[in-house]
Amino acid sequence: MQLMISNRSAYRLSAAIIGLGLFASTTPSPLYHTYSALWHFSPLTLTLIYATYAFGVLATLLLAGRASDDAGRRPVLLGALGLLMASTVLFMVASSAAWLFVARGLQGLATGAAISAASAALLDLHPRRDPAGVGLTDGVASAVGLGLGIVMSSVIVQLGYAPRVLPYVVLFALFAVAFVGVYLMPEPVENRRGFRFTIERPTVPAVARHRFALAGLAVLSSWSIGGLFFSLGPQLGAHLFASSNAIVEAIGIIALTGAAALSQVVLGRTAPWMGASAGSISLAAGTVLIVAAARTGSSTEYLIGTLVAGAGFGIAFLGGLRALVAVIPPEQRAATMAAFYVVAYASLSVPAVLAGVVVTHLGLDATFELFGSVAAALALAVAFEAWRTRPRASRTQLELAREPGSSVRRHGDSAAAG
Predict the structure, then answer these.
(1) Residue (of 223, 193, 306) closest to 25 by Cα position
(2) Can you give the pLDDT at residue 398?
(3) Domains defined for the chain, CATH in brackets
(4) What is the mean pLDDT of the chain?
């Protein structure tokens, strides 16, 4: 009889895989300057390398997003983690920009499969089947993974010991541990039909479409800021702090993702519409401060802006995600989460790629002003749309709620809290 880990442990493992996928996505970021200097490639080449990863993720989500609904979570996760380990080996032995294209492309394809299956597994394995708890876990894992990946890599680059190899050795070891864990986890999909490779457009069940629209807008506004930071944040940090230290250069990304994770933990049970609305306002305000810092050269204003924007990033993303996961039918979990992450990764990648092209023509400050202003305006639009989705009481309910001890008041308070 094969040893199996418990459902609770499998739930934690699924969350860790989501975080690990995003951890891996930011690991190469502090090394790009080294790569470009070593192999003499242009900012445009760097932008195309980033795009290769992003489009790899999107391709898998579009072509095989529902694979784990058909074949099961374990087979898809095992395959994805195996490919992720292979991609780290390619990074270790890379000797030219061509190797980076192949490694990032493979990493993107595998990440798309991993996060789709792991997100669906969270919904399967939660001990109380609590959608709010699943949304919180997914959101925190995503933010923590994004931040820790760049912290780990920045520290190793700054130490200077085998910087082009050691980060990927760490990553390989983490993937290997996760692979063993998935091999030992129970399979949560009972009625498996075998894997069918078919090209399908992202599908969202009718019952979840309104919530999906709100979640999509929330992730669009928040992850577009993340994409801007992951592509140009280190350059802006180096400029504002007048430092070539890899950790100092990444301080904006660290502050953004750290504030996002903390805000989700502290305010994770806020009503989804309120979280998406208030978070988007905070995101817009923080982005305006960052744009002002880029113009004035103020490092203090930059740090304050990243913390404010990060808090909004976390709550806006989580509010939309919580509203969505509560209404997804069990048999369509992977497909719906794949569609959600298509929007997320498009939001993360397209602004980053465009910013990488524009910065060569307009310069760093002007690029941040342009993209930051657009992102702030989008966040305010999301705040308004989220506010419109707030629960509305009927006149009868309002009259009854004014009566002392009214059960309607108690029920309304409970609904607003959820």
Answers:
(1) 223
(2) 43
(3) 7-186+206-390 (1.20.1250.20)
(4) 82
